Amino acid sequence: MARNRVKGWSSLEDVRAIAERRLPRPIYDFIASAAGSEVTAKANVEAFGVPQFLPRIAMNVTSIDTSTTIMGARLSFPLIVAPMGGLGMIDPDAELQLAKAASDAGVMFCLSSYSARPLEEVAKVCTGPKMFQVYMLADDGLAREYLGLAKDHGYGAIAITLDTAAQQVRDAFQRWNVYGMGGGIPLSTKLAFARHPRWIRRQRLLRGAMTDVERRVRARGEVIGPTFYEEMIRKDVEWDDIARLAKAWSGPIAVKGVLNPQDARRAVDSGATAILVCNHGGMVMDGAPATLDLIAAIRAEVGDGVEVIQSGGLRRGAGIAKALALGADACMTGRPFAYGVAAAGEEGAAHVLGLLRKDFEDIAKLCGCRSIEELRAMDLHGAPRNANRATG
Length: 392
Prior knowledge:
The protein is α/β, with parallel strands linked by helices.
């Protein structure tokens, strides 16, 4: 690994700017863009600026413990690397780089079903806590195959994504027509790629298949059409299907894509042990509320004993503290890590993790909190009180 590539990158914004320069513009827009007018994506980030800390002083923060248990695994601090499909478009090794960085940092890595690398290969480098994200696939045999492989290769938990029955257009990415739909790839897109010859050389390692799902289906002799990914996702999912999956998995299981408190209750009743409050970073639907704003209501609905994980918009470690005070058990984020691997591979991902952890630890000390329990009991100005927070 090259040394000091991240020297001087003092914030996630520095990392993002480097990623923007190092990626072809269409691929950067694939990561950074969101659905519709991008109102939801912006709201996710802006929500973290609304509740304000009410610090306690003279609390002796010489020693603090940020460790916690999430989805049955012990983490060094309450953060999960989000599952991200299409990371191979950044780098064919992106999942391996992220998994290794997460393991070294002692946080959980969640692998997407739409990963470029097979889950078996990722498991070899991900020696720490790992979770596998699954879709309700139309190909039931493939769905069962993935669950069996996840269990056999040490993925201790799964997250079922349920918010992708359809997807609004992402204008910034759509304009590049990367897949050549209805008339071929535009010259402007070809030129944007041509300016990044190293990226082109790395892409050859994918061998014509953007994801492992695609590779497995091709190996069976099936033809991959332009609507392959849309057709892979079941549109007829009901809560009984989730209950059957939870029973078959018989381990920690999160339902991902929950925004409505009523759905949070239905998820728990169907066997979920965790609620992933997620709007896909605004990439699927525009007009949904910021996920941080929903944490208190969902915590009130499911009560204590069910893990609530906030996902979307996190850009500083201090935001994790706010999410905990509102009722979350952990946060999940994706884009900052995509920028990290785009900027400097595994080193970039590790740097992002370091920035988030230091900021989280600093704000805990500044607020007079020495443990996760004290952070959850913390008051925030301008936010509803977490009724299920620890007392004392």
